[in-house]
Amino acid sequence: YILKRQDYVLRLARAMITYGAPSHRLEEAIDHTARTLELNMQCVYMPNVMIVAFTDYETHTSETHLLKVSAGLNMHKFAQVHQVLKMVTHSSMPVEEAIMKLDAINTEKDIWPRWANILSFAIASFCTAPMFYKGDWIDAVVAGALGVCVGLMSWLSERLPSYAHICEVTMSVFVSFIAESLHSHICRSAVKMGGTVMLLPGYTITTAILELSSRHMISGSVRLFYAIIYSLLLGYGLTIGASLWNLIDSGSTPVGVTGDCPNTLSNTWNILFVPL
């Protein structure tokens, strides 16, 4: 029965990392679960890696597990995992049933289909181009179309692991190149930033600040430094895309990633853009 409880704790930790639990919540939840199940356990979490050690003080032995899991974000499945966690800690669900529940959560399909995720890229790009970066309706439409392309390339990176390492740079190069090629019809800065808005590491920075404020220095520092380097890579891609078009069209005038747009929409339209 002890092995079953240990197996449940390992499956719970893997599921929580996969579906987006920040480290200060993750370690607290796993420690509380182990105490509830009367397990002598210690755990340390670093981004994408968790070390779990079970100790038997009677035999003076320990068993250490290294969980290498890529951190993701799926709020629907995370809510289901959290519900299983609460039921086990309140002794309203046996460990065997909890293990089966976690397996079922891992194998079930996502609540939103792939086309809906790609559509969310388009809507986010369409709304942010005029709302945050002062573009007009043409800029919003072009940014939405580029958002669809970014969503498709993001899906391709999930299917091809070898492409995942360079997907962010190639996406920003593509968006910047197309924006520069349409420079006579659009505001380049609004389209560039709107087209790549879904690539910005906002959730990573938010998680890093929360972890640093809760004294999780290692994981918080790693996430924050990664977000900074990631942002620099996006800027590098935007610069490369613009430079490639300037090589093709010598009459094009280089412009910075950010800048003022000549035509802007009224702030009244934010009543529509903010809910979207």
Q: Overview of this structure, please?
A:
Strand 2 (49-56) and strand 3 (61-68) form a beta hairpin. 63% of the residues lie in helices and 8% in strands. The chain has twelve helices and three strands. Helix 1 runs parallel beside helix 4 and helix 8 runs antiparallel to helix 9. Strands 1-2-3 form a three-stranded antiparallel sheet. The protein has helices at residues 2-18, 23-36, 75-89, 95-107, 114-131, 137-159, 161-164, 167-181, 188-195, 202-213, 217-248, 270-273; strands spanning 41-46, 49-56, 61-68. It is mainly α and 276 residues long. It starts with a helix and ends with a helix. The model has no long low-confidence stretch (mean pLDDT 87).
- Spatial order of the strands forming the largest sheet: 1-2-3
Count every beta strand, where a strand is a DSSP E run of 2 or more residues.
3
Query: What ranges have pLDDT less than 50 throughout 5 or more consecutive residues?
Result: none
- Rounded to an integer in angstroms, the radius of gyration calculated over CA atoms is 23 Å
Helix percentage: 55-70%
Largest sheet: 3 strands, antiparallel
Spatial separation of the terminal alpha carbons? 50 Å
Summarize, please.
The chain has 276 residues and is mainly alpha-helical. The chain has twelve helices and three strands, in the order ααβββαααααααααα. β2 and β3 form a beta hairpin.
